[in-house]
Batch of 4 targets.
Target 1
Amino acid sequence: MSNIRNFSIIAHIDHGKSTLADRLIQYTGLVSDRQFRDQILDTMDIERERGITIKSQSVTLPYRGKAGEDYELNLIDTPGHVDFSYEVSRALASCEGVLLLVDASQGVEAQTVANLYAAMEHDLTIIPVINKIDLPSADIERAREQIETELGLDSDQAILCSAKEGLGIQELLEAIVERIPPPRGSRDLPLSALIFDAHYDPFRGTVVSCRVFDGALRPGDVIRFMYNDATYKVEEVGLFRIVREPRREIAAGAVGYLIAGIKTIGDVRVGDTVTLDAHPAPTPLPGFKEVKPVVFSSIYPISSDDYQSLSDALEKYKLNDASLVYQKDSSAALGQGFRCGFLGLLHLEIVQERLEREFDQAIIMTVPSVQYEFQLKDGSTLMVDNPTYYPDPMEIERGFEPFIKASILIPERYMGAVMKLCMERRGTESKFHYPTPGRIEMTLEMPLAEVVFDFYDRLKTVTQGYGSFDYELSGYRESDLVKLDILVNTEKVDALSLIVHRLRAREWGVQVCDRLKEEIPRHQFKIAIQGAIGGKIISRSTISPFRKDVTAKCYGGDISRKRKLLEKQKKGKARMKVVGAVTIPQGAFVAVLKTKQE
């Protein structure tokens, strides 16, 4: 055990975590140059397309130190985006130390500080690393200063490196071996291992990633999950060396995987403790904090026959992404589905895309909403994340909505356009900071609900792709909230209702009505599409009916004959309107989510 080191790389988004992991893998010779590719730990197509890390991946690196000793370094690469901070917290629970990366040109940023606090909570050894020293805009002295003042770490201990050029990698590996303590624990105690990730393999069942704290695990052992007392016989254990590499055993201090033919997906919970059935550990290991979702949306299958396969897909997906929260939901317009909670917008997009790609699901998502808080006149408080449960307006005393502290980094020339966009979205209390010449960092308070919808796309558009956006929740504030209902032919469509600020209600109503008018096909009768707050109509579009020319055969003669035929047609249309049902195509629900520009 004295030759094992478990460490993680943490940093703000785009400060070079995955590139540094690549260099470490290349330097230790785990992968030959012929088989190597950039961002080798980002295995999902979606990660490679977007150039971001979504899942934390672990890999065991063989390293021979200066003194000639052989070490096993367990590296866990983590995501930088705020939406995946849950992945980071799970990775940190399996480590004894972290490399905290700071970009030499950008300096210390929001997620750098957040990740530092997370590492301190787990009482880990922190090695500051200044990366990207080869850039022309690198300011190493300023980065050192920020490490001292903003992070409170000793900047003399910081290691200079360039992950892209491979500078300083040897010093970094030596620092990992010297400064990060070996794992504590004992092989002789009963087995206790923490599950920090899992994924479903169609041929082998569930593959569980775990960190062994005490004892040892071998094929043939009968294990028990402490959360629900399910028992299984282990088929294979091993380490992650890019691919799974089977071993005779994994012992205390190791980070590895186990396969035990687990077909019941519900048995595996991230944060659960694995122990031996015959010699169980006395107490389970501390798990992970339950996550609190921020953005909510409902997912429905496009065809109602696919409900069961969507349910199975979500169960398998939940194994790999423990931060997704979901429960059953149903809608009059869209049938049976699930109400899901996400950690943010990017998380929502990734879940949608992965369900479609990896599990072949054809799904519809409703308008994303956030969790509002209402104080009622009887003194009680109600949390509402679904417009269906909006309370009676007569009973509401005050409404509150979540606000965020947004930090937007842009080139100076786009400042006017970005300010205008933020003001449209009810942004307040803006502050400006100039990190480098020609770049501005704006920090401002905004309602989360305004950001949930297409804000990031608009920001990228007005800054021609140069804007970066990061946020953290700052709490609830009082707000004038109303429920906007959409009526089609005087009937409410529950899947299109949403809770909005009173000032934005009309704008939303007009937009949704216009969008539906384009999508709903014409019928034999006139269809009114209306936006309403309570009993008050605030927007309307009308779809004109198909009309047959009933007066075609009346040429010449008395006008009353034509009038009689037109009156007869009018009565028929009125009767049809009362009886007829309007079918809303699935595409209409998707179209409402699109923005004007699209």
Target 2
Amino acid sequence: MTVNELREKINLFIYSSKARNLRRLKMISFIVSTISIGSLFYYHGFDLSEQTSLLIESIVQASFGYYVFHYLAKVFYDFSPKNYIKQNWFEGIMVLLLIIEGISFNFFDVLLVESIFDGFGMKGASALTVVFLQFYLFLVVFFELSDKTSLISNIKLHPSTIFITSFLVIISAGTALLMMPEMTTIAGRLGFLDALFTSVSATCVTGLSAVDTSTAFTLKGQFVIMMLMKLGGLNIVSFAYLAAFLNRTGFGVKQDEIIEDFVTKGSFFNAKGMLMKVFFISLIIEVVGGLMIYLLITPDMPFNTEGDKIFFSIFHSISAFNNGGFSTVSDGMYATFLREAYMLHVVVALLILLGAFGFTVLFDLFTPSLLRERLRHPWKRPHMSTTLAVRTHLILIGISIVLYLIAEWNTTLGDKNFVESSIIAMFQAVSVRSAGLNTADIHALSIATVFMMIVMMFIGGNTFSTAGGIKTSTFALICINTYSIIRGKKNNEVLGRTISTDDMLKGFTVLMTFGGGMLICTYLLTLTETHILAMPDRSFIDLLFEEVSAFSTCGYSTGITGMISPAGKVILIVSMFVGRLGTLSIIFAFARKIITTNYSYPEEHIMVG
């Protein structure tokens, strides 16, 4: 009997029980994952007794044993095991790692991953990899359940509702984690409002912080903040794919229109593949960026171990690419030992720029198949929205650099040469529209520069990116419409294309709602922060700057974040949340549905200007 004949007999034997058993195993996996992740949170968040620690370690080890069993069962039940292993190679690698670690621990009393991290001076980091592995396996189970069961796919939710809910879940989990005693160096634990503020700021990739990230949080707390930035950055660029994946039975016309604001039609129908593509591309960029930052660390920088250097590099790579704005160093990139590390500034600025460009732009410009096609057919060009976004983005950066140099040449840049001044101006020009990392003392800048920064923060980065603001596309559409009206054109035209009226109206709606929300919150801050306005070295411009930074999810500050009152923090929390999700997403989620639009009233002329 050949192997194929034996396999065919096995397939026939297990066919009747395959679906039932796999369904049961998946449901058990979901329960095991939930219990294990909850146990890990408890383990790392509190100072536990030895007996409790051993119990949780046993739960985690048992969960890993079950994952190995579940994977082998899926391979056994698949009619083509080789193809299954090839298609799920990453999960196979994770399971292989679990098997090796299990053998190593049970027979040699050594954990290989822990030994590797300890060799780099990163004691305790192996525990963080366990958390990551548990989350990955949990996601694998989640997608399998949504693929094979009707429970999740039958849930019909508006994309904006999914978007808002996903952020609320991440923020709530982040707040709970940051309040755990082991996450902070503060006696007892971090207060609820400060924990919520930090969680919202990290998840909304803003960077404003009411406490010093470098001193108030332990390594575990900083790791949580880093993961919140990562999840927040991915969430803004992947929620549409997730929404499409979970709602495979179809969206309504209105839902489809909203989804198209974030993704293209081609990628819409390959949601799961695009989710993985977004994740791996971002991971590659962050790993390469972290490696470059690590190589630029000099011996005179105050890092005690190799582990400190590695964590600094990874944290700032993720913070920069996701436009997070957080730093593990007091004063951030303006710290004494970093403010003149100009090559490091260039690398960080490049990561910020890539994050602010957005994934649709990166995919359109750098996908190998598209590059080869354009080489073969030079007449083919990137999508018009890509060209418009890149040109607008680069023009705004150029304008910001020039204005910064003009205003600061004889003041804050007075002791710098031309190259140093240019790098400082470039970094602020790139970072101010999205990231919040700074290499200059914002409070020492001139009013002209601060005003320029407010305008640039308000505009923000590209659509479908980790940046905030009204987005470059909205700003470009408004400029195009203004130009067309001045020239007396009937249509709004750019790059040989006509912009639809719906897009133009949507752009003005974003401008009005975004600007209106920002003005309301600024007014409220003037009522709650009278103590800041009373300070001799502070003024209304500080509050306006802080609010625009929060609403635009930039993270720049003139240094007043720690002085903000509890009421003011609530205002900034709402600003960061609404600014990150986008005013249109909030409106679409709660707006009342219109029954019909198939009518029109008689036209009337309104005097304008």
Target 3
Amino acid sequence: MPAKKFQKLLEPFQIGRVRMRNRIMKTGAGTSFIEENGQVGDRIIGFYEALARGGVGLVTVESTGVDFPTGIHHPSVQLHFENDSYLPGFQKLTEAVHKQNCPVFIQLFHSGPWHPQSWSGIQPIAASALPKSDLPHQHLDEPRAVSKEEISELVGKFADAAERAKRAGFDGVEVNTSSTHLINSFLSPGWNRRTDEYGPQNLENRSRFLVDIVKAIKKRVGKDFPVSVLLTGVEYGVSDGIILEDACGFALLLEKAGVDAIQVRGYGYRRYEFIHPGPEQLLYPEPIDPLPPELDWSKNGAGAFVPLAEEFKKILSVPVITVGRLNPEMGEAILRAGKADIIAMNRRLLADPDLPLKVAAGRLDDIAPCTGCLYCWSRRRQNLTIKCRINSRLGRERELILTPVEQSRKVLVVGSGPAGMEAARIAALRGHKVTLLEKEAGVGGLLPLAAMVKGARIEDVPLVFKYLQRQLLKQNVSIRKGNEADVNSIIAFQPDAVIVATGGKPIVPDIPGIFQKNVLLMARLHKQLKFFLRFFNSYQLNRLSKIWMPVGKRVAIIGSGIQACELAEFLVKRKRQVTIIDKEEFPGQEMVPEETRNSLLDWLGRKGTVFYMNAHVEKIVPTGVRFLTKEGEEKLVRADTIIPALPLLKNMDLYHSLGNAIKEIYAVGDCAKPGLIPDAVNTGAEVGYKL
């Protein structure tokens, strides 16, 4: 059945002479898993090795600079390959991938105007010198124009890097011409103001630099060594950006130059900047107006770039690669419809590198879900190693190894939030006999509440606890719901090890009037919502709250962190007038990525939400909240309902009360250190591997 259902997705395919075992490809998105001076080490090798072992058809090693320092964005997060000193590391990487019977390409690029002058002291280069006011991205440094002599040298550097790649054992190269990188600054009229043969006068001139690179690589390494190109199909947010007709013209010129495959996606500037990491983000908190008309928005952003690939397919004979939050079912449908030849994935393979093998085996329920939170991309933007909400092994594949235990033990997990469930899952997989106690009627801790507030259109939080619950049941973990643990019951259970995952405590701020009837404390709100969750799921409750909820028309929220801002969004969408009051200087500081926070704050402002930051709440009165502004002015915000939405406190009461009664005891998740979902999953996994 699986082979038939995913017949096109799982069938072998060719890029040039390179045979893929299926049509799933890992993109060249960055990880920051590099060693000092951009070298390849065990961490990044382990990552790509795990992808290959998981059954993907082709691995693309992430963006690698062909020149240093201006060819890369940041030395602590990007690979580079400008000389032979990097060969040994790359050779170890290709050997590890090839041992898993998987081909591997390397993505080559030059950062161009993306290079920040602040760390190298060298001005970035682009097709043209642009003043700050003309830059499509205002946060970039002003670039200088690259000379014709430098263009010739850079063509040679791409060819040099491709030759090194072949010597290192790579099966092909991908040239990244998208985003704000150097090559794109020639392709895009938004960047290119030249008057010579590399200028914007026609498609041949604009693509000359890129076409010369492809020809030089082919001449250097041979026509049988595959060259793929990552191309921007349309640019948004800039008046004179690349249009689809241009991109189709570039594609034809590249095919003529000898390119073996082309991947196409969209790119955006300013308010459209978020389209690159996740097109679905253009729908948050509400859809941007106008949404890019060339793209497909019928699936909430998933598959948005497919129409671009479809246009390429109409005119090209070389394979066309599409990308953009695609899952196996969508990939199969796209291939069957002839809209693309290869399905590229990134975030879904970060969440579960074994996705291809699980698809082939018909184990779709066992695929760890990507919820679209973009936590991985947010860390990359901060020049940090990426992490995943659901995959704690990401970047630690050679460190966290699932080895069976020699002696099975009796493990008790108290609490079924993400930390407790992940600890239970790993412990059970390793062979322990695990029992999980949950005092509520359902599992998930605060996740079902978060899911009710967030909804499912953009970030599908319920996928986390649904997946974890399925895995616990498959591993025969005994889940005892409606069972509140205390010291006596735990001791009576006689466990060999206890994992306390009871979650954090809601803060009750020390404010006069905090217990008045018009105050809805988080503990009370959680209790009400958990009651309704006995009868409705998170999706249903989210919809029902648009009809009725026990909250007045005017709401004052005390706090401005992620809890407060997402609650404000929820309330505003239900026609409430919201005021946020907090002692902090900036709202939404824990929210990731930064662009999500900025989009939400901007939207809240446009919807009439009022923020009072650097404020001191003095008293809650029957008519609202009295506070001092940062200027020392006393104010009263009139509100029907006041909700303190503050970060959780750690909750180690049960852990400490057990004392020495249990020899082996651990605390994981918010009860030990309140944080985000990835933090909770990570701490739970670490204990599971340790037991």
Target 4
Amino acid sequence: MASPRRARIRLLTWLAAACVLGGANPAAAQGGRGAAAADTSYLRTHYAKREVMIPMRDGVRLFTAIYTPRDSANVPILLTRTPYSAAPYGEGMYPRTLGPGPRFPALGYIFVTQDVRGRYRSEGRFEHMTPQRPVKRSRRDVDESSDAWDTIDWLVKNVPGNNGRVGLWGISYGGFFATAGMIDAHPALKAVSPQAPQTDWFIGDDTHHNGAFLLNSTFNFMAMCGTRGAGTAMTCGKPFDFGTEDGVKFFLELGPIANVEKKYFKRQSPGWTDMMRHGTYDAFWQQRSILPHLKGITPAVLTVGGLYDANNYFGALKVYETLERQSPSTDQAIVIGPWYHGQWARDRGESVGDLQFGSTTSDTYQREMLEPFFAAHLKGNGQGTHPKAWVFETGRNQWRTFAQWPPREGTERSLYMGASQRLTFSAPTTTDSGFAQWVTDPARPAPFVASGGTDMDPDYMARDQRFGATRPDVVAFRGDVLTEDVTIAGPVRPTLFVSSTGTDGDWVVKLIDEHPNGFQELVRGDVMRAKFRESFSRPIPLRPGQVAQLDFTMPDVFHTFRRGHRMLVQVQGSWFPLVDRNPQVFTDIYKAKASDFRAASQRVYHTAAQASRLTFRVLPAAVVP
């Protein structure tokens, strides 16, 4: 079990990348010294600090900290816009670092950090995932795109020594603001790096996956950074005190999710309250997806994502995919590394949990990918040469480059769940009724980690999955020992034929690499809420005992199952408290009562006509060194 200190650190998963790495820190943001007392001598010596309130077109002013090199002129600006504080406040107060990586303070940039509208010392009203206004009829029609435009316009006109070129970056929530800033971009904005960007809070980022609510991470975030403070602007406070490290115990004793409002938030967390009012992909959520607005993007874009990022890997993939489809002329690339949320800017990237990668992957990314990207577009001629994708191959532990992601090479193959719980690349041929069956009981849900779990622990995806093997509500399909390497690249798409004695249910699918020593490495896992199987906007119930087809897409992988390993698939009906409990009754779960939660018998079928499977692209041996 994690120590209390480690558990508190995990509560900062949402904040660490955007806040600590963006130049701020939680202690300073709350007015204390704390981490701000760390060594700041380099920045004090080499940078002059200035604090300003930059006016937006509607008259609202945004707090902005500007750090200008004391001995350089004609240098570009690197801007980050954050809801996690531009602290430390005061022109004599300096952060520990600046920019999107540890070497950037020595590379010759003007660094700018801004509190977004309605947060900390900026004026105005904060709104989660601010809806984009594609048509602006007056100065009152503002969004994060217009705030970025107005900020950049002011900076290039009023900051001495700048060369007229601006780069924009951000991690996590900051990645959302970076993504929004490249829409209808200011002419001076030449390069943008959205890193783990939030893009759609209902389909795949942070708060929901395929309509299923991510309970522990959302609860922590809204408790810490989503509640009303004493002032007019919203700020982040202390981590929530659970009184236990046992997340299963805490959230089970909480009862139905409606009790969060009654017991804890009491209508003081506007974001949580809004979520509980919108249990389907309605206009509220659709307006908050930034993806439809990514058209005609003129700055160069380098999107960054982590294979083990349970928060916003979806967002990184979707920004890249959407630009390829909706803005094909944009000069863009993607980096996908072996990292949890924000790790590429936090440490050297040598490992996640027990998984070791054999090199300092974050250093390679910073030196060979991120730094040259900004240098080419902000200091050079804007014609930096680069591949379309840098992707780290797990299993073999090596960086690879591609002219397209997912790669063109390879063959789509399906991995079938079969009789006797075998896993095979051959489709089942039996016409008899074949299925695996288990009972999912909301009173005894399957956990997402072996112990603890009050938050979305950043390393949970790297933990040994054997803890589920002894549970009767987890079904495992195991393949034969591989006689040759199998490399898969791109999304993993489950197709499940299922039934239940209930009228709703969750199906969790985990693709696992079983090592010869028994270690079960989670390659990819995700959840599908059955009532959303045909539409996220118009849920429909299951008919008890009737077979339904569930198709969904899990985020991309690039993994080699080595010779001597086995491929393993686990299927289960709960993943608690990472995902909230499904009452297994068709209802608005956010309003469900304790009496609505019922055990249900669930099945996954494996016959010729109902062949449950996972489909992915397998690379030929000639493509794999």
